[in-house]
Write a structure and sequence with these properties.
By secondary structure, the protein is of the alpha/beta class. α1 runs parallel beside α5. The structure holds nicotinamide-adenine-dinucleotide. Nicotinamide-adenine-dinucleotide binds next to α3, α5 and α10.
């Protein structure tokens, strides 16, 4: 396929490289002027979109996505698919899909989980919103960039799935960290704490696969000085998107709200910025109840 790829950052760069490696003809554009092996660099978004069967965007947020879509949609050929893999707000995803549809284009919102390692290794999971026809066109590309693509329904549902998942993740990570800090103060060893919770009803991905305490459980960012991994500020971004969506949908999400407030404090007032989101444990270790 002929593919336009816009946003060649930490995630987009390796995703574009994997598509080129698989034999697709990829034209790439990034405002930062990034060069990717096997990808033809072009000067503008519309230049990347021209003649493409699929245009993929991997951008920081919804307002940038909307601005890029405004310039790229008019340059796309009818029947082509605009495939946004960024994590953005549900409203922006739905607005861009509407705009694409009006221009006789297919549109999918397909945020990912799996991080930078998944992008490089082609093992991402895609959560996809949009119609069946567009999904079928993009499916071979999902198979190259990832290991799984779940079709979640209509436009915006991919973003909805992503922010609900990450709201659970933010809440369970905080719960896991505060439980470790409490266990420390009660004199329980980290090993005992992990062995019990990871095989009892408190188990979760945060405990079992991404343990925030160094030296126990599988290797995780905690064993690497809390270098991200998944940065605390990206978790904050996703939690804020979940609360924005909850607000718009009149959904009661008190745990999500509290997790958002804690990550905001951690990133903005404490030393969370640039650390993995599991470094929340250090925060609880330092504090008492006061
Ligand atoms: P990044 O900041 O490394 O990459 C974004 C790229 O977009 C940058 O290279 C930037 O120069 C480029 N860009 C910005 N505005 C542009 C424009 N108008 N036109 C063209 N290019 C533009 O971020 P990332 O880590 O690659 O994340 C991308 C998206 O994926 C985000 O929405 C993020 O939330 C999501 N995501 C990231 C991870 C992760 O672990 N990094 C995991 C899952 C999802």
């Amino acid at each position: 396929m002929k593919i336009g790829f816009i946003g060649l950052g930490n995630m987009g760069g390796p995703m574009a490289a994997n598509l080129a490696k698989a034999g697709h003809e990829v034209s790439g554009f990034d405002v930062a002027g990034v060069e990717i092996d096997g990808v033809t660099s072009v000067e503008t978004g519309p230049a990347a979109a021209e003649g493409a069967d699929v245009v993929i965007t991997m951008l920081p947020n919804g307002s940038i996505l909307r601005a890029v879509a405004d310039t790229v949609i008019p340059a796309m050929k009818p029947g082509a698919v605009l495939l946004d893999c960024s994590t953005v707000d549900v409203d922006s995803a739905r607005a861009v899909a509407q705009q694409a549809k009006a221009a006789n284009l297919g549109a999918l919102d397909a945020p990912v989980s799996g991080g930078i390692g998944g992008a490089a290794g082609g093992t991402l999971t895609f959560m996809v919103g949009g119609n069946d026809e567009a999904f079928a066109i993009a499916k071979p590309l999902f198979d190259i960039m990832g290991q799984k693509a779940v079709h979640c329904g209509e436009a915006g549902n991919g973003q909805a799935a992503k922010i609900c998942n990450n709201m659970v993740l933010g809440v369970t990570m905080i719960a896991t960290c505060e439980a470790f800090a409490l266990a420390d103060k009660l004199g329980l060893s980290r090993e005992a704490m992990f062995d019990v919770v990871s095989t009892s009803s408190g188990y979760s991905w945060s405990m079992n696969a991404y343990c925030p305490a160094p030296g126990v459980g599988p290797t995780s960012p905690a064993d690497n000085g809390y270098l991200p991994g998944f940065a605390a500020e990206l978790m904050l971004k996703d939690l804020r998107l979940s609360q924005q969506a909850a607000e718009a949908a009149d959904a009661d999400t008190p745990m999500g709200e509290e997790a958002t407030a804690l990550y905001a404090r951690f990133v903005e007032d404490e030393d969370g910025l640039g650390q993995d989101f599991s470094a929340m444990l250090l925060r609880f270790e330092k504090r008492g109840r006061g």
